[in-house]
Amino acid sequence: MELTNKTALVTGAGRGIGRAIAFGLARAGARVAVNDVDPATAQATASDLLSAGFEAAAFPADISDPGGVAETLNGVLARWKCLDILINNAGIEPHSSILELPLADWQRTLAVNLTAPFLTSQAAGQIMKEQGGGVILNIGSIAGRAFGLRQRAAYIASKTGLLGFTRECAREFAAYNIRVNAVCPGVILTEMTAHLRQNETMMKKWLEDIPQARLGEPDDVVGLVVFLCSDAARYITGQAINVDGGKVMS
User: Fold this and answer.
1) Which residues contact 130 (CB under 8 A, 6 or more apart)?
2) If 0-12 CB within 10 Å is exposed, 13-18 middle and 19+ buried, where does residue 97 land?
3) Residue 249 lies in a domain
4) Cut 0.85: pTM above it
5) Short-list 147, 139, 146, 186, CA closest to 165
6) What's the number of domains the chain is made of?
7) Rounded to an integer, what distance in angstroms lies between the CA atom of residue 137 and that of residue 19?
8) In whole angstroms, what is the distance from residue 212 CA to residue 129 CA?
9) Does residue 11 fall inside a structural domain?
10) Residue 248 lies in a domain
């Protein structure tokens, strides 16, 4: 699980799971390019990494926009001359019934959760192909598998699509020595899930269905991410692995 001399780009790394992944990759030896749509949080994560003695830089941009992707990857290449690891973590989760979901929310969710990984994977894939290999890891959700959530139609559609995209990337990119996998967290203790945890009745029922009887922490996701990015996972591609305390078993 050694990532020394590797350059990793983590999208949505300003907070939550993305921030934890950025630190996990840095601890494993990687240089970390911190992306977030919010310049302040991107810079905060990068600054904290630098203060901890790691090599990092902030690349704030909207990666659901082709211009933002080009700006980010060009910046990474200008600084470190390579890109070995791409973590597609950025995501949003609007709450609404299908009957009341605004079209704008549907489109924005698909743009951030599905189009952005397509754009970044396409651009990073071209770089990695020329380099002779690399790793792309998509942060999905158990909601994208055989597990639904009420009032999350746009989120579920995007995460289900992301898993299909992961498989197709793995098939096509294998010829270029690029591995592509997905990690599917359950409910993790982040700002994104704070609203869910306010519903005590729902959380009680949720916890009853988790064999480990607890919600996940961001660091619970990190170990698997680092493993999948390392040469220890060199024969693993096209997989989607749950990190949910056993809530969904497949």
Assistant:
1) none
2) exposed
3) no
4) yes
5) 139
6) 1
7) 15
8) 41
9) yes
10) no
Whole domain around residue 118: which residue ranges? 7-243
Residue 140 DSSP code? -
Distances (CA, A) of 171 to 141, 157, 162, 180: 21, 22, 14, 9
Mark 198-221 as b/e (b = at least 16 C-beta within 10 Å): eeeeeeeebeeebeeeebbebebb
CATH of the domain at 189: 3.40.50.720
pLDDT by residue (tens digit) across 186-238? Answer: 888 877 666 666 777 777 777 888 899 888 899 999 999 999 999 999 999 99
Contacts (Cβ under 8 Å, ≥6 apart) of 20: 218, 219, 221, 222
Residues labelled as active-site residues: 155
First-to-final CA distance of the chain = 25
Give, for 185, the enclosing helix (H) or strand (E): strand 178-185
- In-domain check, residue 179: yes
